[in-house]
């Protein structure tokens, strides 16, 4: 039986579920860190980018923008960090909504880092489908 390879192509499956590429961009300007997490979705073909503005560890601003693949390809700084399933992306999005309320008035570096880790699929689970 063929075992799916760990390459980053559109035919990469995780326990029978299709996975989608996730990109990240982090840069700092004027004391603020702008962290962007993006997923490439095929239907409809678009890129969904979650933008976090963090100042002194406090999440100051969060918004989501949607771009075409062509618009996204022209953006600098994004790098592929993993592939994830739509169900993991949903968990990420729901967690993000909770954190955005929780972290308006306090430092949330750990919570934000843990939220991004949700997107990484556990390799050890591949054999346990």
TrEMBL record:
<dbReference type="InterPro" id="IPR045716">
    <property type="entry name" value="CHRDL_1/2_C"/>
</dbReference>
<keyword id="KW-0732">Signal</keyword>
<dbReference type="GO" id="GO:0005615">
    <property type="term" value="C:extracellular space"/>
</dbReference>
<dbReference type="Pfam" id="PF19548">
    <property type="entry name" value="CHRDL_1_2_C"/>
</dbReference>
<keyword id="KW-0217">Developmental protein</keyword>
<feature type="domain" description="Chordin-like protein 1/2 C-terminal">
    <location>
        <begin position="10"/>
        <end position="129"/>
    </location>
</feature>
<protein>
    <submittedName>
        <fullName>CRDL1 protein</fullName>
    </submittedName>
</protein>
<keyword id="KW-0325">Glycoprotein</keyword>
<dbReference type="GO" id="GO:0030154">
    <property type="term" value="P:cell differentiation"/>
</dbReference>
<dbReference type="GO" id="GO:0036122">
    <property type="term" value="F:BMP binding"/>
</dbReference>
<dbReference type="InterPro" id="IPR045717">
    <property type="entry name" value="CHRDL1/2"/>
</dbReference>
<keyword id="KW-0964">Secreted</keyword>
<keyword id="KW-0677">Repeat</keyword>
<dbReference type="GO" id="GO:0030514">
    <property type="term" value="P:negative regulation of BMP signaling pathway"/>
</dbReference>
